[in-house]
Structure prediction request, 233 residues.
Amino acid sequence: MLKVERLQAAYGKVQTLWDVGFEVPKGAIVALLGANGAGKTTTLKVLSGLLRPRAGSILLEGARIEGCSPTQMVRRGIIHVPEGRGLFPDMSVLDNLMMGAYATPRAGRRARLEQVFGIFPRLAERRQQLAATLSGGEQQMVAIGRGLMAAPKLLMLDEPSLGLAPLAVEEMFRAVSDINASGVTVLLVEQSTQHALALSHHGYVLEAGRVVLSGTGQELLADANVRKAYLGL
Prediction:
């Protein structure tokens, strides 16, 4: 579905990605792993059009899309749920969710809203509550639900478990699994390596802007270097 080849990116004169390449098959969950500063978030920003690549190619269903604007990426079905959630705090849960549907036809919005409420029943209960009054876990549900309202082909999640209590983390990964089971392809950036690899069909490890290791989720969980560097084992 998505194929990235020899991707390079920079912030001004500081290059952060060097010949990054990976694939995300249709219907899969693929994890991007690595320490802070490895280039994971930068990769998502390039894929969502927030940062123009310096070199390389990005193919979505066979069509080259590198250099497209964020609006064009959304219309092609690439939806980025950023780290930090980025909600509208003084708007209700329902209004925040509906903001995700702004680029989609009106037909089908109600069905997608019901899908979101099916995955996150708590949001149905709190639909009129202001986003600022929700717990961290509930706010993350809204952020992901808003992404689902855009009818994504590829849903990119940046650190969805960051700052959440352990029970909320478990609930978040359960939701990601349910979203994938509904037919949505997922690209997951996550510091909780064990959770991410246990859930993912395939994973890639980034170091200093380069892919240094790849394999299935189970292969990476069993890899001695991954276990030492990211699992403390």
